[in-house]
Design a protein that fits this description.
Layout lengths: L4 H4 L3 E3 L3 H17 L4 E10 H5 L5 H9 L12 H7 L3 E6 L9 E9 L4 E10 L2 E7 L2 E5 L5 E7 L4 H11 L4 E8 L5 E8 L5 H8 L4 E7 L20 H11 L3 H12 L5 H21 L12 H12 L6 H18 L3 E3 L9 H13 L3 H21 L4 H4 L1 H19 L4 H15 L15 H20 L8 H14 L33
Parallel strand pairs: 2-3
Antiparallel strand pairs: 1-12, 2-4, 4-5, 5-6, 6-7, 8-10, 8-11, 9-10
Helix pairs in contact: 2-4, 4-5, 9-14, 10-12, 10-14, 11-12, 12-13, 12-18, 13-14, 13-16, 13-18, 14-16, 16-17, 16-18, 17-18, 17-19
Length: 528
């Protein structure tokens, strides 16, 4: 498994959706790296969930922002249309037909340079900000950016590929994988090289000079670029059973194993500094909206987190208690910040971003622990999320809200157990219970906005996490192994109809009041 902890607690991004905003922006960034320059016009054809909800999710603004080179956490994403006009870039959107043969979040980006040259790139947003490029100029490819990647367009004639690999060898580059895609023999071909080390600009320039080569690009996907851990890595794991074995072998917690694994995965990064940055962003997203509420893009949120926090003085004792009241207000605040296209941490997605910080920060404050204990718990949450992402899904478009809120609740439950000194076995039991409690939860955003019922479900998710943690710590363990519960999450997600998987076509989204247009709702307004 090559998923970084910071793809699970991350990306740090502008809301409101990790798959529909951050993921869409990342696809556009890759397309931009493959496009001729300078660009004059770009057209986005959206399919399935993207087509149904792109205005409410800010997908349109994110795609344009990516073509301008903005990063996922750039606050200018919200005003990307205005920036594009100033730069002279024309753009348009086409709502493509539903196609069961395509990923739920698919976009084709057709680009034209001022020279007249055109390039078309199709990408898929896989959830949590992860993306895959599936075709270039109609030729099927597969680019994820998990390793340093070179894209080379060339003629399909004998000797070209040998010449390219020879140049890479001369430069001292070790090829991890090489794949060539073509539409027909002797015509245009594309070769994708995944290398073991970062790619220097000089190498790309050298390849451009090779005979019969028409284009060379270094493909960079923000948040990706991690080389896969080898199969003999000391701290790798693919399942809950693997993770527990690693914990027994090391005599350490889940969080400690995940931290060691991240260091193996990306030895050049200060992983502790990166996790402190995540914690800093989480504190801001959970507190700022309570202190300074702001109206959301769709007009459905703004001030709810503050209301819960302030009512806690009279309601906490007879109802949720001080810690859970604080956890719920923190979770709701994160969704409010996300819904204003504010900067948040996807955990593991933007739609479920409030659950992990809500639970961990509130419980940590009640315990009076330091930041080291908090980050240990966050590492634990990353491990649980990585297993779910690999063996099921954290994408609402793939598995419904159970895949987002259910996964986040499992991560938070395990993290709270670790924060309170519970064993790895107890932590995974709490994660199992949290998933089981939300199995089958549908994704039905009203008006296609990540606002309602998303905020309430984050409140539910954080309560579920804390209840599951207390059950497990009390000795009430889940009778089913974590890996079997994750497998059930996957099978239930696959059984959900498309109308209940983030398309805004079923569930609450189909209620009569949800169909009513609202003049103040940015998601319902035509493009400026």
């Amino acid at each position: 498994m090559q998923t970084s902890a910071f793809e699970i607690l991350g990306p740090i991004m502008v809301g409101p959706s990790s798959s529909h905003t951050a993921g869409a922006l990342r696809i556009a960034l890759v397309a931009r790296s493959l496009a001729p320059s300078p660009l004059e016009q770009v057209e986005f054809t959206l399919y399935n969930s993207f087509a149904h909800t792109y205005r409410g999710h800010g997908t349109d603004r994110a795609l344009v922002a990516g073509m301008l080179g903005f990063m996922p956490d750039d606050v200018r994403v919200r005003e990307s249309f205005e920036h594009a006009r100033r730069e002279g870039l024309d753009w348009g959107f086409i709502e493509g037909p539903d196609d069961a043969g395509l990923h739920p979040n698919t976009v084709t980006i057709s680009m034209r340079a001022r020279t007249g040259r055109q390039v078309s790139v199709t990408g898929e947003s896989l959830g949590g900000g992860r993306v895959r490029i599936s075709s270039i100029d109609g030729v099927g490819v597969e680019i994820t950016g998990d390793s340093p990647t070179l894209f080379v367009a060339h003629r399909d004639i004998p000797g070209v590929l040998a010449g390219l690999t020879g140049k890479l060898s001369e430069a001292g580059s070790n090829i991890a994988t090489v794949r060539t895609f073509r539409r027909e023999r002797g015509g245009q071909a594309y070769t994708i090289f995944e290398l073991d080390a970062p790619i220097e600009k000089e190498l790309a320039d050298d390849l451009r000079g090779a005979s019969n080569v028409s284009a060379v690009s270094i493909v960079q996907i923000p948040g990706a670029g991690h080389t896969a851990i080898g199969s003999d890595a000391a701290h790798d794991f693919l399942s809950g059973a693997d993770l527990l074995e690693a914990c027994r072998r090391e005599g350490s917690s889940i969080g400690a194993v995940m931290r060691l694994r991240e260091r193996e995965l990306d030895p050049g990064t200060d992983v502790d500094a990166a996790m402190r940055r995540v914690l800093e962003a989480m504190r801001a997203e959970t507190r700022d909206p309570i202190e300074r509420p702001v109206r959301s893009l769709g007009g459905l949120l703004g001030g709810q987190a503050r209301a819960v926090s302030q009512a806690g003085a009279s309601l906490a004792t007879p109802l949720m208690g001080e810690t859970l009241t604080k956890a719920v207000s923190y979770a709701m605040a994160t969704l409010e910040r996300s819904a204003t296209m504010g900067v948040i941490v996807a955990a593991p997605t933007a739609g479920s971003a409030g659950i992990v910080p809500g639970a961990v920060l509130a419980v940590g404050e009640a315990l009076g622990v330091d930041d080291g204990h908090i980050t240990d718990a966050l590492w634990c949450a990353c491990a649980v999320g990585a297993i779910i992402a690999r063996n099921a899904s954290v994408s609402g478009a793939e598995g419904g809200c159970q895949a987002e809120v259910g996964s986040a609740a499992a991560m938070a439950a395990a993290a709270v157990v670790e924060l309170l000194g519970g064993s790895p076995e107890v932590a995974l039991s709490a994660a199992s219970t949290a998933i089981a409690n939300l199995l089958g939860l549908v994704c039905d955003p009203v008006r296609g906005l990540v606002e309602h019922p998303c905020q309430d479900r984050n409140a539910l998710g954080v309560a579920n996490a804390i209840v599951s943690a207390q059950l497990a710590l009390s000795g009430v363990l889940d009778p089913l192994p974590f890996d079997e519960v994750v497998a059930a999450l996957k099978s239930v997600g696959e059984a959900l109809p498309a109308s209940l998987r983030e398309t805004a076509l079923g569930g609450l989204a189909a209620a009569p009041s949800a169909q009513t247009a609202c003049s103040h709702c940015i998601g319902c307004m035509p493009r400026p």
